[in-house]
Amino acid sequence: MNVSIGGYSFNNTNLEGKMDVFGYLETVKYRYKLDVADLWNGFFIDRSTGPIYRLAEESYIRKIREALDEKEMSVVNFAVDGAHLWDPDPEIRKRLYENALVHLRASVILGAKTVRIDTGGSYHDVETMSEEQLDYTVRTYREFAQFASDNGFLIGPENHMGASLLPREMKRIAEAVDHPAFGFLVHLGRWRADQEEGDRLVAPWAYHTHFDEGTAVSGNALNTITTLKDAGYKGYWGIEYNAPKRQYLETERLLGMVKKLLADEADVRSEA
């Protein structure tokens, strides 16, 4: 099954000093028997520089790549925080852009197949984009998408913050960018509007997915999987749940739930 474990699932373990990125790779490979990494830059950034997080030196990124190669693992997604596109302050926007370029170069070193760089905006006050914001967002994603295409990966935002939490705004961005290397990391069910049809609206651009505990147990999970598959989705089904405690066990439980959902959906499809 195409399943993965988002690095943020071990954020609390990392903050406790009990796991670094190399421990994450060991855990995914040998505890959960997966050959893919669903990386999150939170394991190798300087969080004290937030909200524009400074990435580790290139030599460290190359060590991560060496560890991936040693374990014969590939990176199905690289989720980037602290390098989002939009901020109303032009100076901060410039620094975010420069940080995004650093992360794009790291994505090439890591061999990432997909990269998530967010739209920007607030996590709390969700509004549609102004014309200035839309124009900047589209131009910048188009530039990043061309870089991604030139280097063999896909790129785009997650429904994570700001206007990206509105599926119709995500659709508007995708239609305006209009680039084959542009798409979405769809965190299933995480919408602030059009909740029931949000996943369907963005399904044609989905390049990666994340389940959390809530979406995995929702009554609509099977339908969502079917919706994305019917739209042509062939990517990975990731889990991303930063459990408050017992993270190894909670990750194992959620991974089993997602595998069962995929098996159940496949059974329904074969019987149709």
Number of E-state strands: 10
Task: Assign an overall shape.
Answer: globular
Give the C-level CATH assignment. Answer: Alpha Beta
- The CATH architecture is Alpha-Beta Barrel
CATH topology: TIM Barrel
The share of residues in extended strands comes to: 5-15%
- Biggest pleated sheet: 4 strands, parallel
Indicate the structural class. Answer: alpha/beta
**Separation of the first and last Cα atoms:** 21 Å
Radius of gyration: 18 Å
Number of domains: 1
Overall helicity: 40-55%
What topology, given as strand order, has the largest sheet?
A: 1-10-9-8
| Discrete helix count | 10
Average pLDDT, rounded to a whole number, is 96
* Strand and helix order: EHHEEEHEHEHEHEHEHHEH
Q: Stretches where pLDDT falls below 50 for ≥5 residues? A: none
CATH superfamily (homologous) name: Divalent-metal-dependent TIM barrel enzymes
Describe this structure in words.
The chain has helices at residues 11-15, 21-31, 58-70, 90-110, 131-150, 167-177, 198-202, 213-217, 221-230, 247-271, and strands spanning 3-5, 36-40, 45-46, 54-55, 74-80, 114-117, 154-156, 184-187, 206-211, 237-239. It has 272 residues and is an alpha/beta fold. It has one domain (3-271): Divalent-metal-dependent TIM barrel enzymes (TIM Barrel, Alpha-Beta Barrel). Strands 1-10-9-8 form a four-stranded parallel beta sheet. Strand 8, helix 7 (198-202) and strand 9 (206-211) form a beta-alpha-beta unit. Helix 5 (131-150) crosses helix 6 and helix 9 (221-230) packs across helix 10 (247-271). It is globular and about 50 Å long. The model has no long low-confidence stretch (mean pLDDT 96).
